[in-house]
Amino acid sequence: MDCMIKSPFWDRYLKLVREQLIPYQWGILTDRIPCETESHAVRNFQIAAGVKEGEFSGFVFQDSDLYKWIEAVGDILQYGRDEDLEQKADEIIGYIVSAQQEDGYLNTYYQLKEPDRKWTNLLECHELYCAGHLIEAAVAYHKGTGKDGLLKAACRLADCVDRTFGPEEGKLHGYPGHQEIELALLKLYDVTGEERYLNLSSYFLEARGNNRFFEEEFERRGRISHWTRGQVDEPNREYNQYPYAYYNQFHIPVRQQKKAVGHAVRAVYMYAAMARMAGCCRDEKLLDTCRELWKNITGTQMYITGSIGSTPSGEAFTRAYDLPNDTNYSETCASVGLIRFAMEMLLNEADSSYADVIEKALYNTVLSGLSLDGRHFFYVNPLEAVPEVCEANPERHHVKTVRQAWYACACCPPNIARTIADLQSLIYSVDGERFYVHQYIGSEREVTLPSGTFRLIQESELPWKGRSVFRFESENPVSGELALRIPQWCVRYSLTMNQHSVTDFSVERGYLVVKREWKDGDVLEWVLEMEPSFCQADQRIFYDAGKAALIRGPLVYCLEEADNGPYLHECRVDVQGKPELYWEETLGGYYGITVPGVRYSGRRQECLYEKAFVEKQAVKLKAVPYFLWNNRGEGEMITWIDIM
Amino acid sequence: MDCMIKSPFWDRYLKLVREQLIPYQWGILTDRIPCETESHAVRNFQIAAGVKEGEFSGFVFQDSDLYKWIEAVGDILQYGRDEDLEQKADEIIGYIVSAQQEDGYLNTYYQLKEPDRKWTNLLECHELYCAGHLIEAAVAYHKGTGKDGLLKAACRLADCVDRTFGPEEGKLHGYPGHQEIELALLKLYDVTGEERYLNLSSYFLEARGNNRFFEEEFERRGRISHWTRGQVDEPNREYNQYPYAYYNQFHIPVRQQKKAVGHAVRAVYMYAAMARMAGCCRDEKLLDTCRELWKNITGTQMYITGSIGSTPSGEAFTRAYDLPNDTNYSETCASVGLIRFAMEMLLNEADSSYADVIEKALYNTVLSGLSLDGRHFFYVNPLEAVPEVCEANPERHHVKTVRQAWYACACCPPNIARTIADLQSLIYSVDGERFYVHQYIGSEREVTLPSGTFRLIQESELPWKGRSVFRFESENPVSGELALRIPQWCVRYSLTMNQHSVTDFSVERGYLVVKREWKDGDVLEWVLEMEPSFCQADQRIFYDAGKAALIRGPLVYCLEEADNGPYLHECRVDVQGKPELYWEETLGGYYGITVPGVRYSGRRQECLYEKAFVEKQAVKLKAVPYFLWNNRGEGEMITWIDIM
Ligand SMILES: [Zn+2]
Ligand SMILES: [Zn+2]
């Protein structure tokens, strides 16, 4: 393992993933933990493997839940093996391998329910999506354990897919309705060096939107929808307002796409693959497309928390500046995908804006998706929520104000798990003789540059304090550059080397670059000023007009009912007032912030509408990190606060 | 005709209905005016009558569009006959009568498209709804013209329905999926004195929710939905979050219903019939149910504009205090139905709260539904709207920010027409020796009390000024009581009789009652103070927290982009500041109001979120009557304004 996390902040989450989330998910997936909707995921494989009797149950993409769990297991094992956990995983992998057909095909839904209808409904039925997740799981499990049983199965499945799909005559000219396999195949190519996987991935990307496959497939199966089980008018069942092809991003060829549209998770999974492909093939034009899409998302369609997807209708992007705070979707998975897209871009070109978004999405949306007990999850991450409103109003009903124990469509929990578990992959990168530090997360790693190898120990006080220390250990001096990201939120920073101020540095694309011959015992101290401050949204975001959000460092803050009482929308914040920090020991310890404001209290009235009798009080508003919301019981929460 | 409208304010609308709306609708219904979706309503009848070739086209309830047009024609003709208009109506009535079957059955959809499936899908297919509208049209046309051709057809249809439905063995034990015929039959009973119609109406109300007819019917037709044309899981196709039986108010027997639920138009149409039935049969228990439902709506589920229906999902009520301003439905038809419910209650028991709501809904929502050209209509009446947002966001996309020329589902325009056309029915009532004035709308009418008859001439300056004058003309003095509603919005009023202050009066349930022997030449002057003032919503309406609405007299005011520029949500209003009136000649003349406030201007930024740099400016906000919004081009509008 080339990078260990050593961070009090993150160790808690890694421990949560290892000790709570992963075992809990295992319990769900094996139906050992009773659940409103039984998962049945492992049992489906057991039935397909012939070791259990029964019928398939669950969504058409149920297999992926299990694959994502294995991926998280593989990721977590990179920091340290665990016999019990490996045994559990190996047992399940045994079922998976046994369930696989001779020809490499593997999908329990089709094998058990519709064996004659394989590859007939790529648009809706997630076969390639599940295959992608198997591949990613296999790669991660191989990385974490060195075992290659699942990896071989993944190759057999990839080979089967490769025999079935492609531009050649006699093959299906299709591509997935839910993108995912594109990135997976690139990872498989990395591990195996097999160029067919690279080419297959490239085929899936290039064919998309370049033919009328989904329409033809739709006609071939008699216009039957998997979801309604009856004939429908259009291939996609529900997607308000935009042409249905936008939903799965096949409205135009991938290279021509400039705006992020449709289902947000599918979109960013695909963009991540495109970014990796661009790097892999040094394809500058494809990289340009990725840059455009990146700019479109982060410049016009992203929340301050790094979440995306403005509507539950299609779990989708809408349009530039359409970022409602109370009816949004902001799926946890979408931020996971956005982080992957960002990381692929960052590996292509070090620009701090990519790492800024990773930090934002990670600390706010991904962590917000997980409760502090590791067993409850948000799927939707609203920027404001009132329990009574979410309960009563259909347009806000998808917003849950309590993290749920599980979801029938359980995409988010394992996505949180694998993102946290593979945290190490987001922190550093090497480019030539330059070593990049993208994230300030305590960790140790071996760094190999052209001129030698050293060990870097990062100690960081983020997200609570702005100080990070870098210690170098090496037998011989290593000359090279260290590039430290200057976060977008930081207005003042200081750097000392062995206690002397560093003045000889350059700044490139948001990174402070120090060139030097690094010696054993060198200590860099990097201090980022981290004053709480108010943010304002671009005026074109109508929903945030006249409002401000409070941030400190990478953390977005919010007001919760637990601190401020109900009816939070009565509050106004004084953006000229001085925010004050306080340390709070509960919830694992956090800095809260108080800010002055006023409250215009309403009252319960005889009539719904009465002559205004407004009581104005000065108040001290208490804000907590957004990612911690809803860990103290159900209650209101707002992020964007009206300015007084 | 017993009551003529003589009001500069309302004459404009009556003229608009007579000269624009009715001819325009005639053009649409006869397909003479090209329309995105052709109406085909008249042609359906011509085909059914055998005078044209072709196929049925339109919604299953297309017939009702035509019936509602005839009803509006009948209503408008009460103020003065019109040969051309009558000729048009008579021609159409000719087709209707010819289309009717021997047995009285009449519904062009079923006759032309599914002749063997009559009465097999009451839940979805609106046969009884259309029948109800035919009856209402016939009654109105008879009242307006004295002609009884359509009335006879209506009786034949009602007889056919009566032979088909009822508690007796061998009859169908069903009731309508869309209530409407219940009230219509009571009107038909009024005109004809035929008790079978009263009993049939009573049957429809009492059977509702008392058996499992809709479920049985659903099974009998093989679970086929009219809307999806395929099998479905539940009788109703789409109705988020609440049990489907709530949608059509058959979840429990009608008499047990205490909360308004489901599709708002269906609900209030039914409540109106219940209220009339209660009066008709002196059914105190049923009246109690109506009072409960009234209290529930007006006390917990009604907007300040007198609109109802908080969600597009099912065009429905949601729950107490759930009154979003930007995603609501507030269908114009629902306010029309609410007015009818209120008026039936008012005739049962004079209480000013009923008349207050009529005034509120009429001046705000009904009039807001109609453009000043009489040819454009709102179906949804938001309390705030931003064109860009409604365009971009699926949860707000049902909110149109421009009145539409027509709707495929054209329920609202003719409902506006008939409400305005039958305005006279809302103004007065007589109870024993007491004569009630519910609305201050210039008009003349003959009043007959037990002790004699007089002519009352009301001159009113509402809604622009608070003064109304009542002149009495009579040959002999008439003793009796005059009851003047004291509007809820009025805090001070004065009454003079022949220029002397009246001190001898009582106040009963919101009415000021003067008992006297009324003489020819008596002049009462009634002045209602009408200062602009701010309203505040009950605290439990979360959406209005920290906000105020500006009203004056019966009118709700709003801010429009036309007066205040874009980004209205940046504004804060000073509720301690003094609102000032200004008279504006455009749009037919209106009082606008200016109020002091501030604006926290945003700006277009490099990044979506930047350090707050808020510019605070003092501003004078300009508010206009809500009903006039969107008559000066498309733009933002808000009703509830943040308090500063
Ligand atoms: Zn998810
Ligand atoms: Zn309508």
UniProtKB/TrEMBL annotation, chains A, B:
Domain of life according to the entry: Bacteria
InterPro entries for the chain: 6-hairpin_glycosidase_sf, Beta-AFase-like, Beta-AFase-like_GH127_C, Beta-AFase-like_GH127_cat, Beta-AFase-like_GH127_middle
Protein's name according to its UniProt entry: Glycoside hydrolase family 127 protein
A biological process term (GO) from this entry: carbohydrate metabolic process
SUPFAM superfamilies named in the record: Six-hairpin glycosidases (SSF48208)
Residues of the Non-reducing end beta-L-arabinofuranosidase-like GH127 C-terminal domain: 533-641
Domain Non-reducing end beta-L-arabinofuranosidase-like GH127 catalytic intervals: 5-424
Residue ranges annotated for the Non-reducing end beta-L-arabinofuranosidase-like GH127 middle domain, each copy included: 436-530
Organism taxonomic ancestry: Bacteria, Bacillati, Bacillota, Clostridia, Lachnospirales
